[in-house]
Amino acid sequence: MRASLPATLLLSSLLAACAIKGDIPPSKHISQKGALKVHPGLLGQPVPPELQGETRLAAATPGAGTDATGGQPALGDPLNVRSIHFDLDSAAIKADYDTVLQAHARHLAANPALRIRIEGHADERGPSDYNRRLGQKRADSVRQTLLNHGAPENRIGIRSLGESKPRQKGHDEESWAENRRAELVYEK
Questions:
Q1: Cβ burial, residue 149 (10 Å; 0-12/13-18/19+)
Q2: What are the CA-CA distances from residue 123 to residues 19, 76, 140, 179 (Å)?
Q3: pLDDT digit string (tens) for 25-84?
Q4: Which neighbouring-strand residues pair with 182?
Q5: What CATH superfamily is the domain 50-187?
Q6: Coil, strand, or helix at residue 136?
Q7: Model confidence pLDDT, tens digit, residues 79-129
Q8: DSSP 101
Q9: 166 near 114, Cβ under 8 Å?
Q10: Contacts of 122 (CB under 8 A, 6+ apart)
Q11: CA 154, CA 150: separation in Å to the nearest integer?
């Protein structure tokens, strides 16, 4: 009989917890700005070559934004991805971003009035001088990739902000991963 008392208490606690009705805030990872865009492949339509491989990037890049301030990218439009994320202590561009950078290079080449500034960022770990140099290397790496894809050299500027402008304030891996980035900022 004593063994059933803890089980009864546990069951009643679980039932009470399930009965509580409270507002559960939506996850920040599913919020979206603007109109919902559906990938053509989900509609049974042919997928254009520039969108192939974009599904993984858009779904796996938390916080990659429609502008320099954040937000989820619209699925399928590589021009909406403005943040290039990096691994720890690395300025190497991940293969997932090649389609994105190709699209930005083509967009710059097709629009002579546009200029782009690449801002390199680092997370808070490490000395500030090191983080500034790492941000510079990341911006240089993105710039060189854009040039390799045909972007005009005279309309691409770079700047390192190091750790000074984190997108996500926090002292955990999720925050650090979000802050290891280069931002593509369009200027007119």
A1: middle
A2: 42, 28, 17, 5
A3: 444 444 445 555 655 555 556 656 655 544 334 433 333 333 333 333 345 688 889 999
A4: 84, 120
A5: OmpA-like domain (3.30.1330.60)
A6: helix
A7: 889 999 999 999 999 999 999 999 999 999 999 999 999 999 999 998 999
A8: H
A9: no
A10: 130, 131, 132, 134, 135, 138, 162, 163, 179, 180
A11: 12
What are the domain boundaries of the chain?
Answer: 50-187
Q: Give the pLDDT confidence score for residue 20 in this predicted structure.
A: 60
Check: pTM over 0.85? Answer yes or no. no
**What is the amino acid identity at position 34?**
G
**How far is Cα 132 from Cα 121, in angstroms, rounded to an integer?**
8
Is 157 a residue whose pLDDT tops 60? yes
CA distances from residue 47 to 40, 53, 113 in whole angstroms, order as listed: 6, 10, 30
Taking the C-alpha atoms of residue 69 and residue 112, their distance in angstroms, rounded to an integer, is 25
pLDDT computed for residue 188 by the predictor: 72
23 exposure class (CB count in 10 Å sphere: 0-12, 13-18, 19+): exposed
